[in-house]
Design brief:
211 residues, binds uracil, globular, 30% helix, alpha/beta, binds 1-O-pyrophosphono-5-O-phosphono-alpha-D-ribofuranose, two-stranded antiparallel sheet, 9-stranded mixed β-sheet
Length: 211
Protein backbone atom coordinates (compact mmCIF):
# COMPACT_ATOMS: atom_id res chain seq x y z
CA UNK A 1 0.00 0.00 0.00
CA UNK A 2 1.57 3.27 -1.16
CA UNK A 3 0.54 6.25 0.96
CA UNK A 4 2.73 9.32 1.48
CA UNK A 5 1.16 9.89 4.89
CA UNK A 6 2.16 6.47 6.26
CA UNK A 7 5.65 6.08 7.71
CA UNK A 8 7.00 2.64 8.58
CA UNK A 9 9.91 3.11 10.98
CA UNK A 10 12.62 0.81 9.68
CA UNK A 11 15.26 1.93 12.19
CA UNK A 12 17.25 -1.19 13.20
CA UNK A 13 16.83 -0.53 16.94
CA UNK A 14 13.05 -0.28 16.55
CA UNK A 15 12.91 -3.46 14.44
CA UNK A 16 15.10 -5.39 16.89
CA UNK A 17 12.96 -4.38 19.87
CA UNK A 18 9.77 -5.14 17.94
CA UNK A 19 10.96 -8.72 17.38
CA UNK A 20 11.41 -9.27 21.13
CA UNK A 21 8.05 -7.61 21.77
CA UNK A 22 6.26 -10.05 19.46
CA UNK A 23 7.82 -13.11 21.10
CA UNK A 24 5.25 -15.00 23.18
CA UNK A 25 7.94 -15.76 25.78
CA UNK A 26 8.44 -12.05 26.59
CA UNK A 27 6.93 -11.37 30.01
CA UNK A 28 5.04 -8.26 31.15
CA UNK A 29 8.00 -6.46 32.73
CA UNK A 30 10.13 -6.66 29.59
CA UNK A 31 7.10 -6.07 27.38
CA UNK A 32 6.37 -2.79 29.17
CA UNK A 33 10.00 -1.70 28.92
CA UNK A 34 10.09 -2.47 25.20
CA UNK A 35 6.83 -0.65 24.44
CA UNK A 36 8.24 2.37 26.22
CA UNK A 37 11.59 2.21 24.42
CA UNK A 38 9.99 1.73 21.00
CA UNK A 39 7.64 4.66 21.66
CA UNK A 40 10.62 6.82 22.59
CA UNK A 41 12.51 5.91 19.41
CA UNK A 42 9.40 6.44 17.28
CA UNK A 43 8.84 9.80 18.93
CA UNK A 44 12.39 10.83 18.03
CA UNK A 45 11.86 9.80 14.40
CA UNK A 46 8.40 11.34 14.05
CA UNK A 47 9.26 14.77 15.44
CA UNK A 48 11.79 15.66 12.75
CA UNK A 49 9.47 18.34 11.36
CA UNK A 50 8.82 20.25 14.60
CA UNK A 51 9.25 23.98 13.99
CA UNK A 52 12.23 25.76 15.53
CA UNK A 53 12.88 29.41 16.31
CA UNK A 54 16.15 31.19 16.76
CA UNK A 55 17.34 32.65 20.05
CA UNK A 56 20.62 34.06 21.34
CA UNK A 57 22.54 32.03 23.90
CA UNK A 58 25.59 33.23 25.82
CA UNK A 59 28.14 30.45 26.02
CA UNK A 60 31.23 30.91 28.26
CA UNK A 61 33.03 32.04 25.10
CA UNK A 62 30.61 34.11 22.98
CA UNK A 63 26.99 34.80 22.07
CA UNK A 64 25.62 32.21 19.67
CA UNK A 65 22.51 32.08 17.53
CA UNK A 66 20.82 28.86 18.66
CA UNK A 67 17.53 27.06 18.11
CA UNK A 68 14.68 26.01 20.39
CA UNK A 69 11.30 24.45 19.71
CA UNK A 70 8.77 27.04 18.57
CA UNK A 71 5.14 27.40 19.59
CA UNK A 72 3.04 25.82 22.30
CA UNK A 73 4.05 22.51 23.83
CA UNK A 74 2.62 19.39 22.34
CA UNK A 75 0.06 17.02 23.75
CA UNK A 76 0.21 13.23 23.88
CA UNK A 77 -3.09 11.39 23.95
CA UNK A 78 -2.88 7.65 24.70
CA UNK A 79 -5.91 5.50 23.93
CA UNK A 80 -6.61 3.55 27.13
CA UNK A 81 -5.52 1.08 28.15
CA UNK A 82 -2.67 -0.08 25.96
CA UNK A 83 -1.67 3.43 24.81
CA UNK A 84 -0.62 4.15 28.40
CA UNK A 85 2.37 1.90 27.85
CA UNK A 86 3.77 4.39 25.32
CA UNK A 87 3.49 7.50 27.50
CA UNK A 88 6.60 7.13 29.63
CA UNK A 89 8.79 6.68 26.54
CA UNK A 90 7.54 9.76 24.71
CA UNK A 91 7.62 11.88 27.88
CA UNK A 92 11.24 10.91 28.44
CA UNK A 93 12.01 12.86 25.24
CA UNK A 94 9.46 15.66 25.65
CA UNK A 95 8.85 15.95 29.41
CA UNK A 96 6.97 19.25 29.20
CA UNK A 97 4.22 17.86 26.95
CA UNK A 98 0.66 17.73 28.25
CA UNK A 99 -1.08 14.35 28.42
CA UNK A 100 -4.74 13.74 27.62
CA UNK A 101 -6.57 10.41 27.84
CA UNK A 102 -9.19 8.76 25.69
CA UNK A 103 -10.78 5.58 27.01
CA UNK A 104 -11.94 3.04 24.40
CA UNK A 105 -12.36 -0.69 24.37
CA UNK A 106 -13.39 -3.01 21.58
CA UNK A 107 -16.65 -4.81 22.12
CA UNK A 108 -15.57 -8.47 22.06
CA UNK A 109 -18.52 -9.48 19.84
CA UNK A 110 -18.87 -6.62 17.38
CA UNK A 111 -15.20 -5.47 17.55
CA UNK A 112 -16.55 -1.91 17.41
CA UNK A 113 -14.98 0.65 19.76
CA UNK A 114 -16.90 1.70 22.85
CA UNK A 115 -15.76 4.99 24.31
CA UNK A 116 -15.85 5.48 28.07
CA UNK A 117 -13.53 8.38 28.94
CA UNK A 118 -12.16 11.59 27.48
CA UNK A 119 -10.04 14.19 29.24
CA UNK A 120 -7.94 16.42 27.01
CA UNK A 121 -5.57 19.30 27.77
CA UNK A 122 -6.88 22.86 27.48
CA UNK A 123 -5.89 25.02 24.49
CA UNK A 124 -5.74 22.01 22.22
CA UNK A 125 -6.30 24.37 19.28
CA UNK A 126 -2.78 25.73 19.86
CA UNK A 127 -1.10 22.35 20.19
CA UNK A 128 0.26 19.51 18.08
CA UNK A 129 -1.34 16.25 19.23
CA UNK A 130 0.22 12.79 19.09
CA UNK A 131 -2.33 10.01 19.50
CA UNK A 132 -0.74 6.84 20.92
CA UNK A 133 -1.94 3.24 20.69
CA UNK A 134 0.28 0.19 20.12
CA UNK A 135 -2.26 -1.58 17.89
CA UNK A 136 -4.16 -0.45 14.78
CA UNK A 137 -6.33 -3.47 13.97
CA UNK A 138 -9.70 -2.67 12.33
CA UNK A 139 -8.86 1.00 12.90
CA UNK A 140 -12.14 1.67 14.69
CA UNK A 141 -10.62 2.84 17.98
CA UNK A 142 -8.07 5.16 16.38
CA UNK A 143 -10.60 6.59 13.91
CA UNK A 144 -13.05 7.45 16.69
CA UNK A 145 -10.34 8.82 18.99
CA UNK A 146 -9.01 11.13 16.29
CA UNK A 147 -12.54 12.28 15.37
CA UNK A 148 -13.09 13.18 19.01
CA UNK A 149 -9.82 15.11 19.19
CA UNK A 150 -10.59 16.97 15.95
CA UNK A 151 -13.63 18.53 17.65
CA UNK A 152 -11.08 20.63 19.61
CA UNK A 153 -9.31 21.87 16.44
CA UNK A 154 -5.70 21.01 17.30
CA UNK A 155 -2.98 22.51 15.09
CA UNK A 156 -1.91 19.08 13.82
CA UNK A 157 -2.55 15.47 14.72
CA UNK A 158 -0.21 12.53 14.25
CA UNK A 159 -1.06 8.90 15.03
CA UNK A 160 1.63 6.61 16.40
CA UNK A 161 1.16 2.85 16.68
CA UNK A 162 3.60 -0.03 16.99
CA UNK A 163 1.83 -2.57 14.75
CA UNK A 164 -0.77 -1.87 12.07
CA UNK A 165 -2.91 -4.24 10.03
CA UNK A 166 -3.44 -3.33 6.36
CA UNK A 167 -7.22 -3.25 6.97
CA UNK A 168 -6.88 -0.75 9.82
CA UNK A 169 -4.38 1.39 7.97
CA UNK A 170 -6.65 1.63 4.95
CA UNK A 171 -9.70 2.50 7.06
CA UNK A 172 -7.78 5.06 9.11
CA UNK A 173 -6.15 6.85 6.17
CA UNK A 174 -9.53 6.95 4.40
CA UNK A 175 -11.27 8.44 7.46
CA UNK A 176 -8.42 10.84 8.33
CA UNK A 177 -6.31 11.45 5.20
CA UNK A 178 -4.83 14.53 6.87
CA UNK A 179 -3.33 12.59 9.81
CA UNK A 180 0.11 11.02 9.29
CA UNK A 181 0.51 7.51 10.66
CA UNK A 182 3.80 6.30 12.14
CA UNK A 183 4.17 2.59 12.80
CA UNK A 184 6.98 0.12 13.44
CA UNK A 185 5.45 -2.88 11.71
CA UNK A 186 2.85 -3.35 8.98
CA UNK A 187 1.52 -6.87 9.40
CA UNK A 188 -0.28 -9.34 7.19
CA UNK A 189 -3.98 -9.41 8.01
CA UNK A 190 -6.64 -9.66 10.74
CA UNK A 191 -7.91 -13.03 11.95
CA UNK A 192 -11.57 -13.91 12.54
CA UNK A 193 -11.39 -12.25 16.00
CA UNK A 194 -9.94 -9.08 14.45
CA UNK A 195 -6.53 -9.73 16.02
CA UNK A 196 -3.50 -8.73 14.00
CA UNK A 197 -1.59 -11.63 12.38
CA UNK A 198 1.19 -12.24 13.28
CA UNK A 199 0.93 -9.24 15.65
CA UNK A 200 1.82 -9.67 19.29
CA UNK A 201 -1.46 -10.75 20.87
CA UNK A 202 -3.46 -8.48 23.13
CA UNK A 203 -1.27 -5.46 23.85
CA UNK A 204 -3.23 -4.29 26.91
CA UNK A 205 -3.14 -7.74 28.51
CA UNK A 206 0.58 -8.15 27.85
CA UNK A 207 1.41 -4.70 29.23
CA UNK A 208 -0.68 -5.06 32.37
CA UNK A 209 -0.36 -8.81 32.90
CA UNK A 210 -4.12 -9.37 32.76
CA UNK A 211 -5.90 -12.46 31.39
C1 LIG B 1 -6.80 -2.62 21.62
C2 LIG B 1 -5.74 -1.65 21.15
C3 LIG B 1 -6.53 -0.63 20.39
C4 LIG B 1 -7.61 -1.47 19.77
C5 LIG B 1 -7.26 -1.71 18.34
O1 LIG B 1 -7.47 -2.13 22.71
O2 LIG B 1 -4.98 -1.10 22.21
O3 LIG B 1 -7.07 0.40 21.18
O4 LIG B 1 -7.63 -2.71 20.48
O5 LIG B 1 -8.30 -2.35 17.69
P1 LIG B 1 -9.13 -1.67 16.53
O6 LIG B 1 -8.17 -1.02 15.63
O7 LIG B 1 -9.84 -2.84 15.91
O8 LIG B 1 -10.10 -0.70 17.14
P2 LIG B 1 -8.57 -3.00 23.47
O9 LIG B 1 -9.92 -2.76 22.88
O10 LIG B 1 -8.11 -4.42 23.53
O11 LIG B 1 -8.61 -2.34 24.89
P3 LIG B 1 -7.47 -2.28 26.03
O12 LIG B 1 -6.37 -1.41 25.50
O13 LIG B 1 -8.21 -1.66 27.15
O14 LIG B 1 -7.02 -3.68 26.31
N1 LIG C 1 -5.85 -5.23 19.95
C1 LIG C 1 -4.75 -5.88 20.37
O1 LIG C 1 -4.27 -5.65 21.50
N2 LIG C 1 -4.18 -6.77 19.54
C2 LIG C 1 -4.65 -7.01 18.33
O2 LIG C 1 -4.06 -7.84 17.60
C3 LIG C 1 -5.82 -6.35 17.90
C4 LIG C 1 -6.40 -5.46 18.74
Amino acid sequence: MENKNVFIMEHPLIQHKLTILRDERTGSKQFRELVSEIAMLMCYESTRDLPLREIETKTPIATAKTKVLAGRKMAFVPILRAGLGMVEGVLSLIPAAKVGHIGMYRDPKTHKPVDYYCKLPADLNERDVFVLDPMLATGGSAIDAVSRIKEFNPKRIKFMCIIAAPEGLEAFTKAHPDVPVFCAGLDDHLNEHCYIVPGLGDAGDRIFGTK
